[in-house]
Design goal:
Elements (H helix, E strand, L loop, with lengths): L2 H13 L2 H8 L3 H15 L4 E4 L2 E4 L1 H28 L4 E7 L1 H4 L2 H12 L3 E7 L3 H10 L4 E4 L8 E9 L1 E6 L21 E3 L6 H13 L6 E4 L3 H9 L5 E4 L10 E5 L5 E8 L5 H11 L18
Parallel strand pairs: 3-4, 3-5, 8-9
Antiparallel strand pairs: 1-2, 5-12, 6-12, 7-10, 7-11
Length: about 300
C-alpha cells in the first residue's frame, strides 16, 4: 500500500473534510477526492461517512487510521535509521585493544566517543597477541585494532596513533627504586626481569629482549606472567622488574615503583582493513584522533604522569 495514501487518510480525518485536507496537503480538492475513492475501491470499504457538513471515519476507517499512524511512524523511523547509518552514526563496531591501550590514551578516547556516537554499538575485545589482533581485522571479526606491533600486510591500513614511554616497574624495596628520575636502558642489566611468556605475547616479549640486546645486555629472566596483574604481583614479591608501557602506572600496585626508561617509547597503532570505507569506520577513526583516515598519520605522544 502506498504510504502517501495513508497520510492522506490521516489528514482527512484530522481536518474533517476533503477541502480542508486538500488545502493542507497542497492538492486540488478533485485530486484528493479521486485518491480517496481509489483507495476505498481497492479496499472494498467506505472509509468516511458524512456527518453534517463534514466527514467522520467509519469503523473500517478507524481501523485503518490506527494502523496508518503506526505504519507511518515506523516508516519515518526506518528512514531516520538509514540516514544515520549512512552518516556513520549508528551500527556496530568491534574494537580490539591491549591493556596498555585501555589504561592510556584509548581509555580517555573511548569515553569521548561514547558521548559523540551514543547510538553506536561499540564492542570492545581485550587481546594480548598482536598477531591475533591483526588476524582478527583481516578476517572481519574485528573492525579496528589498537595495538603495538601490527602485522605487515598490504590488506591492512595502519596509523601511528599515540606514543608513550616505556617504564621499568621495580620492587618498591629495591635500591634502584630509590629515585624516580628516568633511568638508562643499561639498568636492565642490574636486575632480573619478569616477562610475558613468548607464546602468549610474542611481540611484547621480543621487543623487551631486543631492547636489552641493543644495549649490549643479556637479560636474566626471573619469572613470567600471562597478565599485567600477575606480572606486577611478581614484581611486588621481589622476583624482579618488568618493562611495560608507562600507562600501567595508573594501576598503582602496592609494593611496585615505576621508573621511566630514558630514550624509549611504546607506540600504539590504529589498524583496520584497507578496503573498509564504511561511514561508521570513517567517523570512528575521525572522532578518535580528529583526522580523516585517508590523511597521512600524525603521531601523538601520550604524556607520562608528572610531565
Amino acid at each position: 500500500m502506498d504510504l502517501r495514501l495513508l497520510g492522506y487518510v490521516i489528514v482527512i480525518a484530522e481536518e474533517g473534510s476533503i477541502s480542508g485536507a486538500a488545502r493542507r496537503l497542497h492538492l486540488t480538492q478533485p485530486t484528493l477526492s479521486r485518491q480517496l475513492r481509489e483507495l476505498e475501491r481497492r479496499l472494498g470499504v467506505e472509509l468516511f461517512a458524512r456527518a453534517g457538513r463534514g466527514l467522520v471515519p467509519t469503523a473500517a476507517g478507524e481501523a485503518l487510521l490506527r494502523r496508518a499512524v503506526n505504519m507511518l511512524a515506523e516508516a519515518e523511523a526506518a528512514l531516520d535509521d538509514v540516514r544515520l547509518a549512512a552518516q556513520g552514526k549508528t551500527g556496530r563496531l568491534t574494537v580490539a585493544f591491549a591493556g596498555s591501550g585501555i589504561n592510556g590514551a584509548l581509555g580517555e578516547a573511548l569515553g569521548r566517543l561514547r558521548v559523540q556516537l551514543p547510538d553506536v554499538d561499540l564492542r570492545l575485545v581485550e587481546l594480548f597477541d598482536d598477531a591475533e589482533m591483526s588476524a582478527g581485522v583481516l578476517n572481519g571479526s574485528l573492525d579496528v585494532a589498537v595495538q603495538r606491533l601490527p602485522v605487515r600486510d598490504a590488506r591492512l591500513a595502519t596509523r601511528v596513533w599515540a606514543r608513550e614511554p616505556l617504564t621499568l616497574f621495580l620492587p618498591a624495596a629495591h635500591a634502584l627504586a630509590a629515585t624516580r628520575e628516568a633511568a638508562p636502558v643499561s639498568i636492565l642489566g642490574e636486575i632480573p626481569l619478569v616477562l610475558w611468556p613468548r607464546e602468549s605475547s610474542p611481540h611484547a616479549h621480543d621487543e623487551i629482549i631486543a631492547l636489552c640486546h641493543r644495549a649490549g645486555i643479556v637479560p636474566r629472566i626471573a619469572a613470567r606472567g600471562r597478565s599485567v596483574q600477575t606480572i606486577l604481583a611478581l614484581v611486588a614479591a621481589g622476583f624482579g622488574a618488568a618493562v611495560m608501557a608507562d600507562s600501567y602506572r595508573v594501576l598503582h600496585r602496592e609494593g611496585v615503583t615505576p621508573r621511566r626508561l630514558a630514550g624509549t617509547a611504546a607506540t600504539l597503532h590504529l589498524v583496520w582493513r584497507a578496503d573498509d570505507t564504511g561511514p561508521l569506520l570513517t567517523r570512528f577513526l575521525t572522532a578518535l584522533n580528529g583526522t580523516d583516515p585517508s590523511t597521512p598519520a600524525r603521531p601523538r605522544r601520550t604524556k607520562a604522569p608528572g610531565e
